[in-house]
Each structure stands twice: as C-alpha cells, then as structure tokens.
C-alpha cells in the first residue's frame, strides 16, 4: 500500500480538527516538533503506479444479477488485488421502503461476500429490527464493492470508479428512501465533501429519492453516545414512511 501523501495528511488533520470543533473542543495541545514538521516544504510526491485491467461498466444493466456478475470480474481499481470476495449487496430488490448504503466491506464481509455481517453489521441488524424491519425487507449495499486494505476509507478515485454499480442498483431497485450510513456513503451519493456531524438528520435528495444521512454503525461502536442521534434520524425515516417503531420487547 502506498505511503500516505503530505496532502492527505493535511486533509486528515483538517477533518480531525473540524470534528473536534463540532464536538465542542476549543483547545488542543500540539507538540512543537509536530508544528515544525508541518511547516516544512513537502517533497515532490511520486505518482503511485498500479497496473489494473480496466473493464468498461455498461450503463444499461437489466438486473441486479447482471451487476453482481460484472462486479465479480471487475478490475478497474487496485482494490481488486487483495479481495477474497466482491460484495455487491443483498436484500429486497422490488421497490423496498428503504435502501441502506454503507462505505465498503470489512474483513468478515470480504470473507462471506455479504454486506454488514461483522461487528458493525450486528449493530446494524439491531438498528433495523428496532425500526420494525428484517434484512430481507430492505436492500443493503456499499459505495465500493471490494474491501479497502486495513478497512481504510475508500480513496476518491476508487469511489468514482465503483459508483456506477451503486447508481445502477438504485435505478433498478427504486427504493422509497435512501439511508446513507456515514460520511463516505453520503459523499459518494451526493458527489461532494460531507461532514456527517452537521449533515446527519437533515433530509437530502439523490435523483429524486429522499436521502437521510446518519452515522455509520462502526462509528456508533466507537462512540456509543451517538446512538441516540442515529435513532432520532431513523425515526425521521419511519415518520416519512408513515410508520412507527414497534414496541420494545
């Protein structure tokens, strides 16, 4: 895997500082040596050279099965080199009330070829059950269909190359509502940078379909205090559909 670029470090630092600001943190201690390092002129970056075999993605798939078959042979980005399985998506494909969109497969998803089956997936299952749904009643997919190494965030170019699959899945499935799980998913759908702490809970729109941004289950595992916010977002989805959550057992 290529080393993190200087520009990438700056972007990550900016996102971290913005997150801290959104969380109400007003002061951070920074080591002087770190400041001196950041002040240095960046060295010229060497372009990453990875050989992949590009496969044009058709714009007129007739079925989800055709999409899944094409994904299984796709080698349009470097993610294909380390995958064990492709993870196209699963669930109700006939105009479900909700289609959930995540970031990308993790280790267990890569092993099984199914979305949201790891630790975050188990929390996700509890979330949709609390809404009154089973996995078979919704559709579940990701922005990228292969696991990024070390579960890192997909790179922009990887997302751009893989997004045609997701867009065509949405076209065929025609869900009533989309739920974007995390900033990366919402960024992929809207095609612009997203700060999920500010956008969550605020209705957006994708190709005429209402889109609700909320936190990714993996983020909720890291910060359980945000579960209440995520549940409030999902209740807005239920309200839009004219439904109420079932009584808790």
List the helices and strands and how they pair.
Layout: H1 6-22, H2 32-39, H3 64-73, E1 90-91, E2 98-102, H4 107-112, H5 119-131, E3 139-142, H6 156-173, E4 177-181, H7 183-190, H8 196-199, E5 204-206, E6 209-214, H9 217-222, H10 227-240
Parallel strand pairs: 2-3, 2-4, 4-6
Antiparallel strand pairs: 1-3, 5-6
Please outline what is shown here.
With 249 residues, the chain is of the alpha/beta class.
Largest sheet: 6 strands, mixed
Order of strands, main sheet, comes to 1-3-2-4-6-5
Decide which structural class fits the backbone. alpha/beta
CATH arch. level architecture of the domain at 70-240: 3-Layer(aba) Sandwich
| Proportion in β-strands | 5-15%
CATH superfamily of the domain at 70-240: Uracil-DNA glycosylase-like domain
End-to-end gap: 47 Å
| Mass-distribution shape | globular
EC number: 3.2.2.27
InterPro entries: UDG_Type-4/5, Ura-DNA_glyco_family4, Uracil-DNA_glycosylase-like, Uracil-DNA_glycosylase-like_sf
Enzyme class: hydrolase
Family: Belongs to the uracil-DNA glycosylase (UDG) superfamily. Type 4 (UDGa) family.
Can you describe this structure?
The chain has 249 residues and is α/β, with parallel strands linked by helices. Helix content is 42%, strand content 10%. It has ten helices and six strands. The chain is globular. The protein starts with 5 loop residues before the first helix and ends in a 9-residue tail after the last helix. 33% of the residues are buried.
Which descriptors would you attach to this protein?
249 residues; Uracil-DNA Glycosylase, subunit E; 6-stranded mixed beta sheet; 10 helices; 6 strands; iron; 4 iron, 4 sulfur cluster binding; UDG_Type-4/5; metal ion binding
